[in-house]
Amino acid sequence: MKLIIAIIQPHKLEDVLQELDKKEIYLKTVSNVIGCGRQKGQTQVYRGRKETGNLLKKVRLEIAVNENYVEPTISAIVKAAKTGGIGDGKIFILNLEECVRIRTGEKGSVAIG
């Protein structure tokens, strides 16, 4: 089991969600976050408005998957989120020690679905 965390540009969220749905990856958590990377606050245009500063608006996706869904998840995110410009984001893949479905008490890969 893996936990995939992706930090992407906000305007690419719908594209990423659609691409994940095409790969039958439905279980995800999405959060609005702020942060900076190598951009170091470089000006970018978001919804027609210039944004500057050290912390820029980003979207964080958290997706827990079984091993056979790791590569499809990564390829879907890259395909949909890539603009080729600075600030496209990052994907982190972490080992997921355990997962428990609260409703049933199921554990492990069965709990992820």
Compute the average pLDDT: 90
Q: Radius of gyration, rounded?
A: 15 Å
Provide the spatial order of strands within the biggest beta sheet: 2-5-1-6
The overall strand count is: 6
Question: What does the overall shape look like?
Answer: elongated
Contiguous low-pLDDT stretches (5 residues minimum) are none
Q: Per CATH, what is the topology?
A: Alpha-Beta Plaits
- Tell me the name of the CATH class: Alpha Beta
What oligomeric state best describes the polypeptide chains here? single chain
**What fraction of the residues are assigned to beta strands by DSSP?**
25-35%
Element-by-element helix/strand order: EHEEEEHEH
- What is the count of distinct domains? 1
* Relative helix content: 10-25%
The CATH architecture term is 2-Layer Sandwich
Q: Report how far apart the termini are.
A: 11 Å
Derived from helix and strand composition plus strand pairing, the structural class reads alpha+beta
List the helices and strands and how they pair.
Elements: E1 2-8, H1 13-22, E2 29-35, E3 44-46, E4 49-51, E5 56-65, H2 70-81, E6 89-95, H3 109-112
Antiparallel strand pairs: 1-5, 1-6, 2-5, 3-4
Helix pairs in contact: 1-2
